[in-house]
Specification:
Layout lengths: L23 E4 L15 H14 L3 E5 L5 H11 L6 E7 L2 H9 L4 E7 L2 H8 L3 H17 L3 E7 L6 H12 L5 E6 L6 H14 L3 E6 L6 H11 L3 E4 L13 H12 L9 H12 L16 E2 L2 H9 L17 E2 L7 H10 L6 H13 L9 H17 L1
Parallel strand pairs: 1-2, 1-8, 2-3, 3-4, 4-5, 5-6, 6-7, 7-8, 9-10
Helix pairs in contact: 1-2, 1-10, 6-7, 7-8, 8-9, 11-12, 13-14
């Protein structure tokens, strides 16, 4: 299928003068994704996932949090030394010993974070904002003096006073940090407030802005796109949207949305389904069947009207082709399947049935207990053979 037929571009975007100009993806599956309750990747699994992310074209991979354990530190170092095209990042509290751990891991970027919201200052740190910020700036200076690129991240930024965020980000800019990062730690943003907040930060700082969205309201991907439209450069994701609580912005959703909505085609999306299946296997987390892009039902059709149109031209009921994301189309026979659709499916399977045979087949299907969950093509072939055998015995 030609490239221009792999998906239907959102032409309405031509009437809206807001679109991402200069972006990069930082995938945080190996760190934030692993903070999903019950999930722990082995070193080999992390290295395999990192390879897949690199093959897709992800620019930055956050490999872990080295001070968590000696094995985590070893894993982060192993990923740093794999020779990937992606830059490798790791997390660091505002403590110089965390930066030392990052240096031992040979990472390219260290993400130094603090929280400045009233809630976190009062109940987590039990310190003043002045003291917390001073620790952060000291740690940033230490990291820069040791040759690391630095991302300064404000945890719970979306419940922090905007003027304070602007002030502290401006202070971090004096230390020549490469990024300032807005973390929507509890997923409180919506696209409008995301756009506003990123715009306000960009009014104050010239440093590249990152956005890190959680999915507590199911808005993480939408908010990440809004941030990109407002000028955020680095967009954070996880595979299958895994992460703490409701998870993070899903990598597969973001990459396909960037392609369909804005025509950004530099990422190899054909590996998304393979990566999703690996993530399922390594994490033990089952992907919902209706999950966008990589769910089992993403390219599954049962309704007779839909099936007939799909057989004629797939783009009638598919925004993008399954091939574009390494998926497969699945036409299901079920209670909503009519005679014309069934005939089309049978023909597509390479079978030819007479009218009487089709009538007998659809009667069998409608009365079949399996119809509640849909009948696969392999099962449909079995039913056809059973009917033919029955006819032959008469």
């Amino acid at each position: 299928m030609p490239s221009d037929e792999l998906y239907s571009r959102n032409k309405l975007i031509d009437y809206v003068d807001i679109r991402p100009i200069d972006i990069e993806i930082c995938d945080v599956t190996l760190r934030d994704g692993e903070q999903t309750p019950g999930v722990a990747f082995t070193k080999e699994e992390k290295m395999d996932l990192a390879t897949e992310l690199d093959n897709i074209g992800i620019e930055v991979i956050e490999a872990g949090f080295p001070v968590v354990s000696s094995s985590e530190k070893e894993t982060v170092k192993s990923i740093s030394n794999m020779g990937l095209n992606a830059k490798i990042c790791c997390l660091s509290r505002s403590i110089t010993t965390d930066v030392d751990a990052a240096l031992d891991c040979d990472v390219d970027i260290v993400s130094v974070f603090i929280a400045m919201s009233d809630l976190h200052l009062r109940y987590k740190y039990h310190k003043s904002c002045h003291d917390v910020v001073a620790c952060a700036m000291h740690t940033i200076e230490y990291a820069k003096d040791h040759g690391l690129k630095v991302r300064f991240a404000a945890e719970d930024a979306t419940r922090t006073d905007v003027a304070l965020l602007q002030k502290v980000f401006k202070e971090a800019e004096k230390y020549n940090v490469e990024y300032v990062s807005i973390a929507d730690t509890i997923g409180i943003l919506n696209p409008s407030t995301t756009y506003y907040l990123v715009s306000k930060i960009k009014e104050t700082v010239k440093t590249d802005v990152c956005i890190h969205c959680h999915d507590d309201l199911g808005l993480a991907t939408a908010n990440t796109l809004a941030a990109a439209e407002a000028g955020a450069k680095q967009l954070h994701t996880t595979v299958n949207g895994i992460g703490e609580r409701a998870g993070n912005a899903a990598l597969e959703e973001l990459l396909v949305a960037l392609r369909v909505q804005y025509g950004l085609e530099r990422y190899d999306t054909t590996g998304l389904n393979r990566l999703s299946r690996k993530l399922e296997n390594y994490s033990g987390l089952t992907t919902p069947v209706n999950k966008a892009i990589v769910g089992k039902n993403a390219f599954t059709h049962e309704s007779g009207i839909h099936v007939m149109a799909i057989l004629e031209e797939p783009r009638t009921y598919e925004l993008f082709s399954p091939e574009m994301v390494g998926g497969e189309r699945n036409l299901i026979v079920g209670k909503h399947t009519g005679m014309k659709a069934l005939k089309g499916i049978i023909k597509d399977m390479g079978c030819n049935l007479e009218h009487d045979e089709l009538c007998a087949l659809i009667d069998r299907i409608k009365s079949c207990t399996e119809v509640k969950r849909g009948i696969s093509r392999s099962r449909l072939k079995e039913i056809i053979l059973e009917l033919k055998e029955h006819e032959g015995q008469q």
